[in-house]
Design brief:
The structure is a homodimer. The first copy, chain A, contains eight helices and two strands; from the N terminus they run H-H-H-E-E-H-H-H-H-H. In chain A, helix 6 packs antiparallel against helix 7. Chain A starts with 8 loop residues before the first helix and ends in a 10-residue tail after the last helix. Chain A folds into two domains: about 90 residues, Winged helix-like DNA-binding domain superfamily/Winged helix DNA-binding domain (Arc Repressor Mutant, subunit A, Orthogonal Bundle), CATH 1.10.10.10; about 100 residues. Chain A is mainly α. In chain A, strand 1 and strand 2 form a beta hairpin. The model of chain A has no long low-confidence stretch (mean pLDDT about 90). At the A-B interface, helix 1, helix 4, helix 5, helix 6 and helix 7 of A face helix 1, helix 4, helix 5, helix 6 and helix 7 of B. Chain A binds a DNA duplex through helix 2 and helix 3.
Chain lengths: ~210, ~210
DNA sequence: CCCCGTATAGTCGTTGGCGAATAGTCGTCA
DNA sequence: TGACGACTATTCGCCAACGACTATACGGGG
């Protein structure tokens, strides 16, 4: 029983969901959706079933019964083992306490940004700014709806985090646009030289096989 | 030649790097590392070679020559096609202009947070806060070093973005700790009830197979 | 009464990501 | 000089992720 690799957070979500009682995989999926977990954790059937298998191999969960109703495919109901509960606690503790390096798409985009001419970049960043505003508004209004339904804030902190990140990104984008346009970023000449060097003076296609 | 799926940003990085001239895969890797791209884009050999293959199949890059020096493995040098340059531009434009849904680990952690008791969560979040401070300081001092070497800011904006996100997360964590402790988050009774229900009153292991 | 859409439950095949392995070359230091 | 480690360059095999697919049950309208 090797300690699982703690890669896919879906596995942790499964452990977490099983805290509230035994369930079969499909049921886990619907429960997670009801609780909105799928907004924060990638969830789809293929992954779910393979993750459940892994957890069983690792001895963190265990089948309690396999029911067959009529000719429906047979459902296997799983429950948490004590090892599973322990792993849940440790894993979640680690996830909360320790930041990990991640690779957001926009960071990649920024690192390749000099590959497009500055005024084009400004145009694109403005578009992003607008879309960020929209996303923020949507999240906030969703939060208001939830408040009316008296969902405790405790179960919506992920959303507050998302909003914080989005707002911070929006500010960053706005100030970046500003700096490029005002020339305060500096090396716009260098940037343009860079572009011209590799955009203008390139040999055309030799043969179009 | 189907338009590639624009999934792995490493492919875009390859296109971007080839803008500055033909190169073979290993060379691409070292160049990207020199330029610090590997901090923003996941890079390892396995993925690199398969990505290059995909790009060739899609007609976005094309081999110019395959050199063999002595008995060393033969190197295949690739160059960008015009289609490749176009794809670079469109893909990068999309990445800059359009936010995509992502699944940061900490968001997952927050969504599962109620699975641990409040005072434990507070302790863990404090630890995270410290580590975030450290990470921020490191990034900032790295920036100072780069400044002394006269690296233009243009090539370091990814880092500024990272710092912005980390700082925003640090503020979020601090205020969350505050809210839980001061009871301003509200439902701490509910939280504790939730925990006690599923932590205390659980049946022990039946058989230890 | 039958047909069709939707919900239930899970399986399967493909693909991509990744790290380890391979294998030759060059410099160096004892 | 020959052993060793660092660098160059690529290949391989495994496994996880995913999404499309299968198949049954159920409910309601025509």
């Amino acid at each position: 029983m090797p300690r699982p690799k703690r890669s896919n957070p879906l596995a942790l979500a499964v452990l977490s969901t099983l805290l509230t009682g035994p369930a079969h995989p499909y049921e886990l999926a619907t429960t997670m959706r009801e609780r909105g977990k799928h907004e924060s954790i990638r969830l789809n059937y293929g992954s779910l079933y393979s993750v459940v298998e892994q957890l069983e191999r690792a001895g963190l969960i265990r089948p309690v019964e396999t029911v067959r109703e009529g000719k429906r495919p047979e459902r296997t109901v799983y429950e948490l083992t004590v090892a599973g509960r322990a792993e849940h606690d440790h894993w979640l503790a680690e996830l909360l306490s320790t930041p990990v390096k991640e690779y957001p798409a926009f960071e990649a985009a920024l690192s390749l940004m000099p590959g497009l001419p500055p005024e084009e970049v400004v145009r694109l960043l403005r578009v992003r700014g607008l879309q960020l505003e929209i996303a923020i508004r949507q999240l906030k209004s969703a939060r208001d709806v939830a408040a009316e339904h008296e969902i405790p804030r405790l179960f919506l902190i992920e959303d507050e985090y998302r909003v914080a990140l989005l707002e911070s990104e929006a500010r960053f984008v706005a100030s970046l646009v500003d700096e490029i346009e005002s020339g305060r970023l500096g090396e716009v000449e260098l940037w343009r030289a860079f572009i011209d060097a590799f955009r203008g003076g390139a040999e055309p296609e030799k043969n179009s096989s």
